[in-house]
Specification:
The complex is a heterodimer of chains A (243) and B (480). With 243 residues, chain A is of the alpha/beta class. Chain A contains nine helices and twelve strands. Chain B is 54% helix and 16% strand. Chain B contains eleven helices and twelve strands. The chains are: A alpha/beta (243), B alpha+beta (480).
Chain lengths: 243, 480
């Protein structure tokens, strides 16, 4: 079944680049030049993925995310021209799933989009309890993690952390988002340093080289992102140039 | 003239001498003496009193037409007249000179007030200086008055400005230089030009030059007036300087705002076409090798745009920092992620001297990563083919040290600080090693902005070591 993509971007050249990148893959690409037009199309056409440019003339990018998130769980991939990490964090917190910084290569964009589409596709068994990525198998029922078949011993917090990360594989999760998911009820602030510690500990248990992480990727200034099955199969490091 | 009046009065009195009393004569004479004093000066008053005394004696005290006096009581009248007229003339004179002095002082105060108002209220500071020059010139009735503020071709003016001592130019062209702010009094008699330093808080801010085509004979009152005016002139110069500085600062601020707006829009407007070029080149790479070069160049342009934007923001102090506790693990991991695709056959060897605890620091993750990417990139570029690049992280007291070392040619002693200057390129390197020439300059500014530093040292056995120092931090080992 062909997938439907919605591109919300005021620059016709960028829309064409994106259209070229995806029509090869047998996808239907809808285009909107303004934020409000994009919101209307998202509501009427139910796209499988929304690619949203931040530099829209009429609405602030974060507002478009929030508006769509009110009634739709469609993954949103953001195109950012700016250098500001705060802005990326704000967008991810507003409901965006991932971002690509301009200028990007089409293969990078395709990889990011594929990751989001795969994650969003409904799984055959609705009550999915097993997540397999690379050598890792997470069993939600048994509350256990195995690596290449052998169990990995985890503290309760490490368990919560990897559960959130693996359930959102392919998505960039902000520090704040992770913290509230794992340490619900605690105040975020200086405590974000604990997140660093637990990620470091977790990496020691699941990565063969903590400095070339295959699974838990660092998104500088933004948060962490768990590799998708495809990315994990390609090995650690070298996930392309990202700002 | 007053003696004529005295004579006329005497003739008039003589005509009626028989019917007059001595008191009439004394009073009329006194009137003439006082009127004379009032119109002329003290000397005239006293001379009139003396002449009136003699006339009184000669014409009106019997025996007449002699200076002899018959009645001893007339002596009393005569002496009393002399004393009264002398004292009255003296007092009148003093009153008058006091009135004049206070009038002069009022005029001076008035001039100072005008001067003060002009120094402070004239819209352009330069006009205020011109106003002060004019007030000094007209008040002291000089040929000309000039306030020098900028360096002058006139050597004497520059000498006074530098030494802070006064100087005099004499009619024969010789110059007397002083050893203090005040001119040498011995030279003042023949002075055609006087150069006085204008000082504010022990600093010479300018030179006041006065002169004319005949000797400047200044009275003590004029001198004291001049030294008061000097102070105003100095303040005027200082004000001119401050206001010029304020103007310059305003212009700079405006330029900065403009630059920021320009950079932001350039950054955004350049990246959109760059995205299109890069994406299309990437798509064509399989069909035509030249597309690979197009994509590389688009990347390079993008780096240049980002570097210029950051440099401008760093220099304006406007680059946002988000300082937090971060693990070195994470930082190095992100570094590996970023550079691993572009090492071109050089291995990146990493050594963490952890000593049992997780290495951590207090820094901005993104900026620190940017610095390291830049250092590793540089190390790779200057490394001989196949040589590894080393990254060593360690804690040293309160500092976190991240050293990037290569086996390249190193940097000559004379250039070890220059490598941190914007657009520096080492002598003899090929024109393009792919960089923007801004990397190390930005890296150091970023390091300093985070409370750290970036330094060069030669590597033992050849090569360079660039060490990024950041404030270290202690991470908690657990959180329940």
């Amino acid at each position: 079944m062909p997938q439907t993509l919605l591109v919300i971007d005021d620059e016709p050249q960028i829309r064409r680049v994106i259209r070229n990148a995806f029509t090869d893959n047998d996808a239907r690409v809808l285009e909107a030049a303004t934020g409000s037009e994009g919101i209307d199309l998202a509501a009427s056409e139910h796209p499988d993925l929304i690619i949203l440019d931040l530099g829209l003339p009429d609405v602030v990018g974060a507002e478009v995310c929030r508006e769509i998130r009110k009634w739709s769980a469609t993954p949103i991939l953001v195109l950012s021209a700016r250098h500001s990490d705060e802005e990326k964090v704000a967008l991810l917190d507003a409901g965006a799933d991932d971002y690509v910084t301009k200028p990007f290569s089409t293969s990078e964009l395709q990889a990011r989009a594929r990751a989001l589409l795969r994650r969003a596709r409904p799984t055959p068994a609705a009550g999915k309890t097993r997540i397999e990525i690379g050598e890792l198998v997470l069993d939600l029922d048994a509350r256990g993690l195995t690596r290449a078949g052998s169990p990995v011993h985890l503290t309760p917090i490490e368990w919560d952390l990897i559960r959130v990360l693996m359930a959102n594989a392919g998505r960039t999760l902000t520090h704040q988002h992770l913290f509230t998911q794992v340490w619900s009820g605690r105040k975020y602030g200086d405590a974000q340093q604990y997140l660093r510690v637990y990620v470091a500990n977790l990496r020691r248990k699941i990565e063969s080289d903590t400095l070339r992480p295959r699974y838990i990727r660092t998104e500088p200034g933004v948060g962490y992102r768990f590799a998708t099955a495809t990315e994990a199969a390609q090995g650690g490091g070298g996930s392309g140039v990202r700002d | 003239m007053w003696f004529a009046v005295l004579a006329a009065v005497t003739l008039l009195l003589l005509a009626f001498r028989s019917r007059l009393d001595k008191a009439h004569v004394a009073l009329l004479y006194l009137l003439v003496v006082l009127a004379g004093t009032l119109a002329g000066d003290r000397r005239l008053g006293l001379s009139l009193a003396t002449v009136a005394f003699l006339f009184f004696n000669f014409f009106f005290l019997p025996p007449y037409q002699t200076f002899a006096i018959a009645d001893p009581l007339d002596w009393l009248v005569l002496v009393t007249f002399l004393v009264v007229s002398t004292v009255a003339a003296q007092m009148l004179h003093r009153l008058r000179s006091e009135a004049e002095a206070s009038k002069r002082r009022a005029a001076e105060v008035d001039r100072f007030a005008t001067l003060g108002a002009e120094t402070l209220s004239v819209a352009r500071a330069d006009d205020a200086l011109a106003a002060i020059e004019e007030v000094i010139r007209s008040t002291l009735e000089l040929g000309f008055c000039r306030i020098h503020t900028a360096p002058e071709p006139d050597q004497l003016v520059s000498w006074v400005a530098e030494s802070g001592h006064a100087a005099i130019r004499q009619s024969d062209g010789t110059v007397r230089i002083g050893d203090s702010e005040e001119p040498d009094p011995a030279g003042l008699g023949e002075a055609y030009g006087i150069f006085l330093p204008l000082r504010v808080r022990d600093r010479t801010v300018g030179v006041l030059e006065i002169g004319q085509d005949r000797p400047l004979a200044l009275s003590p009152a004029q001198w004291s007036f001049l030294s008061a005016l000097r102070y105003y002139a100095a303040l005027g110069v200082e004000r001119a300087r401050l206001s010029a500085e304020a103007d310059r600062a305003e212009v700079l601020r405006e330029a900065d705002r403009l630059k920021d707006a320009l950079m932001a829009s350039v950054s955004h407007d350049l990246r959109t076409p760059l995205t299109t070029i890069k994406a299309l080149a990437h798509d064509m790479a399989g069909l035509d090798d030249r597309a690979i070069t197009i994509e590389e160049e688009a990347d390079r342009l993008n780096r240049l745009v980002a570097d210029l934007l950051d440099l401008s923001r760093l220099q304006g102090g406007a680059l946002p920092m988000s300082i937090a506790v971060n693990a070195v693990d994470d930082l190095v991991g992100a570094l590996v992620q970023r550079v691993s695709g572009a090492m071109e056959g050089h291995e990146l060897r990493i050594e963490l001297e952890e000593g049992g605890t997780l290495l951590a620091g207090r820094f901005d993750f993104v900026h620190a990563l940017r610095i390291l990417v830049n250092l590793v990139d540089n190390a790779r570029k200057y490394s001989p083919a196949g040589a590894p690049v080393d990254l060593i992280a360690r804690r040293r007291d309160g500092d976190l040290e991240l050293a990037v070392a290569d086996r390249g040619p190193g940097v000559p002693v004379a250039e070890r600080e220059r490598i941190f200057e914007p657009f520096y390129r080492p002598a003899g390197t090929p024109p393009d090693v792919g960089g923007t020439g801004l990397g190390l300059a930005i890296a150091r500014m970023l390091a300093v902005a985070q409370g750290g530093g970036l330094a060069y040292r030669p590597r033992e056995g050849g090569g360079s070591v660039l060490t990024l120092v950041l404030p270290a931090a202690d991470l908690p080992t657990s959180l329940s």
